[in-house]
UniProtKB/TrEMBL annotation:
PANTHER family: MITOCHONDRIAL RIBOSOME PROTEIN L39/PROLYL-TRNA LIGASE FAMILY MEMBER, PROLINE--TRNA LIGASE. Belongs to the class-II aminoacyl-tRNA synthetase family. ProS type 1 subfamily. This is Proline--tRNA ligase. It comes from Caldalkalibacillus horti. Residues 33-468 form the Aminoacyl-transfer RNA synthetases class-II family profile domain. Homodimer.
Length: 573
């Protein structure tokens, strides 16, 4: 492609609203432009990278035996009502009505649509297993779009769905998809980990997230320092069930104390001169329509996902301040399991609370706490469970090593859905004995546009993007320093044609711009190899530079083919 005729608007300055490097570079290098908050148009350079990602995804998905389809983006509300997700999914679901006042949603995911399709067409076990995938634009009404395409309202996703007659068949496909994902992210040049995860609003069991390691990741990965164990912090199990408790005046009777304007653990510990692990935090939630209070030791944090899973809920939210007053009959910031009012709701506790004595809790009265509280003596709970976040230094759940943390960007997720959707929507097949059974399902997603941002986060320097060869929008950046120089222009044109004949994808900078502008743009775009035709064109001497290493050398044009052969062989080996 000749650069003077291409649409590659680069920016010198960093856009003010771009917080992270991938967002900055995708704008500066001319990959995309924002049209509204969380909405982007992809320009030719960005589209070429998206196509590269899609080619890798298609290749690996086809190897699993999955077939590509294209499903409707617009979903009738009736399908989502069948599964109950119309009400459960929440405000991120973009809803609209047509001229006949019929309700629809813009698809954030396609479980309902694919299940309705298969239930109408597949009736016998003889047609199973079946696996289909699509690459399509998805929509989610993010409360706060940020980090460019990492959290946007519109994004490109690969979603696949499999249907099975047996659990063993699902297990086999799940492993195929898991392996395909490992191949996809490896081919994209990413440093990533596959981690155990919670299934969230999708549902199901046995799920894994594929997390790209990055300082700007919004997810925390807990991993063992001496084994392959890794899990999202929401999912990571705490195996410790007993604790050495710090007991101070554990035999004293409970006592209400004034704590004016003291609400946080840190403030309370300082005010009463106690350690955080002598405090019991009470966190009030609404799980579906039920109010529950979860207790945890003050030096730990409650894990909302674990509370939701324990109670078998679909949704969980912190109880609003108004509901704390009206429904819990307590006071925000001073909720506790005992007191003059007391709590008339379900109370569950983390294992860290068991065995505490002489603890401090909220008094359910404004500006008051209670000291010298002991569980079982002063209040009872429905049970003790693993309800806290794992922390660095905890034993690894697999019994090997201790836990460390890293931040990660989720780029893929695989689920075993089981029969959640097939039972709700009547996706039934006849087994070999002629009996009706619900199809067993799997679901497998990849954030295609997220991969772009994740790759840039891991592959850049102070000058710009450094694309892996597998995803680079062009293989080679060919630059003629001075197109007005007849010999430079002639050699540049000759090389452009020869390289294209050799099947290289070439961006030819034949613009009448200053050399500094051309070189800065080249570094910003980050193509693997730069070939510069300059003052030694008459001698047949050109300069070649590897973007990643920065290695630069002068060679004769007759040596170029061998140089490129060696470079790309090494880069793809």
């Amino acid at each position: 492609m000749r650069q003077q005729h291409s649409f590659l608007p680069t920016l010198r300055d960093v856009p003010a609203d771009a917080e992270v490097i991938s967002h900055q570079l995708m704008l500066r290098a001319g990959l995309m432009r924002q049209i509204a908050s969380g909405l982007y148009s992809y320009l030719p350079l960005g589209q070429k990278v998206i196509r590269k990602v899609q080619e890798i995804v298609r290749d690996e998905m086809n190897k699993t035996g999955s077939e590509e389809v294209l499903l409707s983006t617009l979903h009738p509300a009736e399908l989502w009502h069948e599964t109950g997700r119309w009400d459960v999914y929440g405000p991120e679901l973009m809803r609209l009505k047509d001229r006949h006042e019929r309700a629809f949603a813009l698809g954030p995911t396609h479980e309902e649509v694919i299940t309705s399709l298969v239930r109408d067409e597949i009736k016998s076990y003889k047609k199973l297993p079946l696996s289909m995938y699509q690459i399509q634009t998805k929509f989610r009404d993010e409360r706060r779009p940020r980090f460019g395409v990492l959290r946007s309202r519109e994004f490109i996703m690969k979603d696949a769905y499999s249907f099975h007659a047996t659990d063993e068949s699902l297990d086999e496909m799940y492993q195929k998809m898991y392996s395909a994902y490992m191949n996809i992210f490896t081919r994209c040049g990413l440093n990533f980990r596959a981690v155990e995860a919670d299934s969230g609003a999708i549902g199901g069991t046995d799920t894994h997230e594929f997390m790209v390691l990055s300082e700007i990741g919004e997810d925390t990965i807990a991993f063992s320092n001496s084994s392959s164990y890794a899990a999202n912090i929401e999912k990571a199990e705490v195996t410790q069930t007993s604790y050495e408790q710090l007991v101070v005046d554990g035999d004293k009777e409970k006592q209400v104390v004034d704590t004016p304007n003291v609400r946080t653990v840190e403030e309370l510990a300082a005010f009463l001169a106690v350690e955080p692990n002598q405090i019991i935090k009470s966190v009030a939630f609404e799980v579906d329509s039920e109010i529950v209070v979860a207790l945890v030791r003050g030096d730990f944090e409650i894990n909302e996902t674990k509370v939701k899973v324990l109670l078998g809920g679909q949704t969980i939210e912190l109880l609003s301040p108004e509901s704390v007053v009206q429904d819990l009959k307590s006071v925000p910031g001073f909720v506790g399991p005992v007191g003059p009012v007391g709590l008339q709701v379900k109370i569950v506790a983390d294992n860290s609370v068991k065995g505490m004595a002489g603890a401090v809790v909220g008094a359910n009265e404004k500006d008051k706490h209670i000291q010298y509280v002991s569980p079982e003596r002063d209040f009872t709970v429905e049970g003790y469970y693993d309800l806290r976040n794992i922390v660095e230094g905890d034993p690894s759940p697999d019994g090997q090593g201790i836990i460390q943390f890293a931040e990660g960007i989720e780029v893929g997720h695989v689920f075993k859905l089981g029969t959640k959707y097939s039972e709700a929507m009547g996706a039934i097949f006849l087994d070999e004995n002629g009996k009706d059974k619900p199809m067993i399902m799997g679901c497998y997603g990849i954030g295609v546009t997220r991969i772009l941002a994740a790759v840039i986060e891991q592959n850049h320097d102070e000058k710009g993007i450094v694309w892996p060869v597998s995803l680079a929008p062009y293989d080679i950046h060919l630059i003629t320093v001075n197109p007005k120089d007849e010999q430079q222009q002639e050699l540049g044109e000759k090389l452009y044609q020869e390289l294209r004949n050799q099947r290289f994808d070439v961006l030819y900078d034949d613009r009448k711009e200053r050399p500094g502008v051309k070189f800065n743009d080249s570094d910003l775009m980050g193509l693997p190899v730069r070939i510069t035709v300059g003052k030694k064109a008459q001698e047949g001497i050109i300069e070649v530079k590897a973007r990643k290493s920065g290695d630069m050398e002068e060679i004769h044009v007759n040596e170029l083919e061998a140089y490129l052969q060696k470079f790309f062989d090494q880069a793809t080996s």
